[in-house]
């Protein structure tokens, strides 16, 4: 998004350029920050600076690993979220002026929990703070412990809606049923979509899957949601996502934050943004202009 804003000569916040912000996990943090008026560049800088700090493994304790303790400290993630949101961390999502949607999973009920601002309907709004919303949606079970929010222990929304496009469209249909034909959506991925895999590498048992099972399931959901949104919106939908080649280490693990991995991510995002802008300049410029359509997302 930062690169698209540069290409479109957009500076500062983008709050008035979209009518709904939505995201999951790291995308949820970005959506919350953008929705309250934090400029995309500041969001990027905060996230980039926090990566190496967040993914510092705990001292090895084989007993704790054996009984399933999370490998990373949620405290570090907590500090990074607060650093990004700053004075807005304690703001209830219900008080955010912009329409905002962030999914998580309630461990107790086993159901998807969608945090929403009052702009999507007061009856559906949540009183959870933006800090709790972001921590809930980012609590990936193979990396961090569940986040204890008012609604109960919460898990990463990426397990059910790594790409929340269809959740957004269902809310638009509910809130503005006559406007779905005018909706335009810009969807930005994190280089996590499923890529071709050699048949001979198909895992034969659960131990062989390890963490890759959760990643695979999120990839499949991401592609499915994008396909459904494309069928529903057609040319009014643009999905931007780098498709990593097999063996690109920076994209195979979600917890790599060393200099080489971060450089690879920046190169990929820059190339993806430039290619998308080259092919869809009119659409992107229109999406980044001040919003006047009820259904622009």
UniProtKB/TrEMBL annotation:
Transmembrane listed as a keyword: yes
Species the sequence originates in: sediment metagenome
PNPLA domain residues: 1-169
Record's keyword terms, sorted: Lipid metabolism, Membrane, Transmembrane, Transmembrane helix
Kinase as UniProt keyword: no
GO biological process: lipid metabolic process
Entry protein name: Patatin
Gene3D superfamilies listed in its UniProt record: Cytosolic phospholipase A2 catalytic domain
Transmembrane segments: 20-39
A Pfam family matched in the record: Patatin
